[in-house]
Amino acid sequence: MRRADSKTAIRKRRRKGDGGLYEESGQWCAEWHDSENRRHRAYGATPELALARKAKRIQVAFIQPPKPKQRGSIGTASNPTVKQAMETWLLNNENIGETSRGKYRRNLERYVIPYVGNRAVKKLTPDDMETLKTTWKQQHVGQSAMWHVWKTLNTMLNSLVKKGTIQRNPMVQVDAPKRTNRRAEHIEAYISAHTQTALGIIAWTAKEDTSCHRYHSLVMAMALGLRRAEALGITQASLIPSTETLEIRTRLKQKVGGGYYLQPATKNGHYRTIRLPHMHYMALANAKRENAITLPIQDEDGTRIGEGKILLTREDGKNYAYTDWNSIWREIQTAYKKHIWGEDAKLEVDDYIVPHEMRHITSSILGEQGESMKTVQSILGHMTPEMTEHYTHLLESGKIETAERWGATIEQMAEFISSTMEEVAKVSAEAESQSDGKNVVSRPTTRKQGNRTKRDE
After folding, report:
1. What is the rounded distance in angstroms from the CA atom of residue 245 to the CA atom of residue 379?
2. 251-261: per-residue pLDDT in tens?
3. What pTM did the predictor assign?
4. Which residue, of 136, 199, 402, 452, has the fewest CB within 10 Å?
């Protein structure tokens, strides 16, 4: 009997067809080739999970075809059922994060699959969509849940149209379920007061002697209207000194099982370049650290195509985690309010500016200074004017250089708000010292006050 060599003894022999299995960037990759010799990869935190995902993707993608069926029968790759189409969409769409993937699956499996899951996706009609809405109402499904399920199903069907699986989306002819968007109502109600607070924070964090000065670059990235993944995924190479521009070419993505990498795409898959106001450029340029972490850049198939040194990092050089985004922003707002109103001041619900609201604030400032909808659309990275109009509360036309005017507007408004709030802080401190420890200074209203008056009036 021949003695097994050390390599065979250490590694268990894989079965034929398992393909490559190796560790890459902290996770396991199961690699294989299909019948047309195209390479595919599936990732997992463990070898077992990677192989399981590989097997599921092979089954769903019909790389190992089922038994021959009659022409045009339901369940084939060219004529999948709604359930099969859902599985393919969820497993093969690398632009969907793991958290969102789980949420989309729960929505569809609970509210869609029980009713039309076995129907051929090509046979879905507008009447089927109306029936779904009626069924949800009869089951007393909440407005928000109905709207999110509708949005998820619509996105899935639109992807099938792009692939050519179906000719048109049956949901196009049907009105979406109505819902009360409480976040939008909150933003609309407090946009004016929150804009003033945001400008005050910009001026306050710019001062080196403030407690939150170390976050100034992060605040200025938010003031550009960047999405969270875009801001945290900025690389040092994407900041161009010669033109003072910022290229939004990568976004931060979270790996399955932990860790981060960079994906070479924005949310809508299009790159964009922003000409920065000088104050924004200087804030981002000063954020560069020699010890900044370098993350791999991977395409949709998980192939490493490069690497990028992160621009916005913690003091130890590590990238900010997704959870840091909200906690730091709350810390900044709390510290700013205490600076203005004293140590006893608390950040109330109506005071808090959610991070996403900074996109609305940026849009409103640009609209107020006279930028066209097309200009605002290019800065925020919107695909449609309708989306930009949702963000822009004040729209006018203008043809002056956007970056210079934007910078001048921010500086003037921030300086005005900062000086005003500093006076309020002094009055507050004097009043507190004369009131036996009781706060006798009334807080300004936070309700929407209409358009702000020009600062030079």
Report:
1. 12
2. 998 887 778 99
3. 0.56
4. 452
